[in-house]
Amino acid sequence: MTMNSCASGKEENTVLQLTHTAGGHTLHHNNVFSPDGQWIVFDGRNDDTKIGETSVIGVVHVKTGEEKELYQTKNPTRYGPGVGAASFSPVADRVIFIHGLANADKEKPYDISRRTGVAIDLERPLQPVFMDARDITAPYTPGALRGGTHSHCWSGDGHMISFTYNDALIEPELRTVGVMFDAGRPVLVNAFDGNNSGQLYAAVVADVVAHPQSGSDEISKAFDECWVGKDGYTDGAGRRIPYAIAFQGNTVNKKGETITELFIADLDPEEILKDTAAVGIAGERPHVPKGVRVQRISRTGRGLSHVRHWLRSSPDGRFIYALAPDDKGIAQVVRYAVSGGQATYITKNATPIDYSFNLNKEGTRIAYVTDNNVYLYDLLKHANMRLTFNEPGDLKIAGAPSFSPDGHLLVYNQYRPAGPQQYLQIMTVAVK
């Protein structure tokens, strides 16, 4: 392992290069560690935009650096099928990742509306489990969707999975969010090119429209969500909501400007299952089923940051963390109260946070990247600590740093030289 030390005041942090093989090792923005903290999952991308050209999902052992291949696509081409964005269940040795459609070719390449969620168990590598069903032949099967799911994220108990979704048949550009869960039986669909059955029941949970009314709560895009609380939250009426996701929604303010605000979708899986008509008919997008209650959390006027990021929740579900611009337009971490939507700026950096960030399991620390360095913000001490000391011109850090389950290790991606090439490798830094 490659090693160098980084010191800030009395603190000293050792940075290690964990992976060394000639190839990309892209980390997803969430749940990259196995529940026991021993393995880290990655995909073979060396460029965030190249999922369609990527064929490998792998894991690396935290202590030994041993790499293992979990999955490889059959007959990969530059057009797909493609795999990427892998994350572990918080309660089982199972990962889920994006998988492009098997019929991908030059005329029908990997695309935002042509992908699904596939799982692999550590003890059964190379044996894909298709999680969400895809059915593009009307009449549609309840519990199946007809587009592409992406950026899957497990609930705290591992029972549900959220995702973003683009429909393949109606207004594919209108992104929304959805969830899937075990209905007690698989969702079986007709055999057809582009269809696949799935183990879980899926539904969209946010309505989107192409042209939201100015000043309304209508949204043109729902995206980049998180689960609220480790096991739900208590709403303003004192009701305990076991499952809810917070998501970003593009609205149009009274000035006619598109801005991004926070929304929460409360979920009742039993009621979702009952509303089989929500699957929709030919010529319609899937509907939001009964059992979903969406409420708007923030009314900022300024909106969230345009920097791509996913929301994060405090473990108790009281707060949602996001990126929002300060008075100078610099993207900072901001905490929003779920009850009332009050915003509190957490960071006060001179340079913008450049991608997603993560909280530790206890919700007391935030890890993020700015100015090509990893930082740790302690929410209890209100203290910011720099963990890496890259100089101008050093190779780029990419993506979001992630905490190990015990909170004592951070992992992140950085390009490292390998002969004349540069590859995304997994770096680690211990935190006290």
TrEMBL record:
Fetch the Pfam families from UniProt. Answer: DUF3748 (PF12566), PD40 (PF07676)
Residue stretches spanning the membrane: none
What InterPro entries does the database record attribute to this sequence? Answer: 6-blade_b-propeller_TolB-like, DUF3748, WD40
Specify the domain of life of the species encoding this protein: Bacteria
Q: Which PANTHER family match?
A: PROTEIN TOLB (PTHR36842:SF1), PROTEIN TOLB HOMOLOG (PTHR36842)
Family assignment?
Answer: Belongs to the TolB family.
Output this protein's name: DUF3748 domain-containing protein
Give the species this sequence originates from.
Niabella pedocola
Q: What is the lineage of its organism?
A: Bacteria, Pseudomonadati, Bacteroidota, Chitinophagia, Chitinophagales
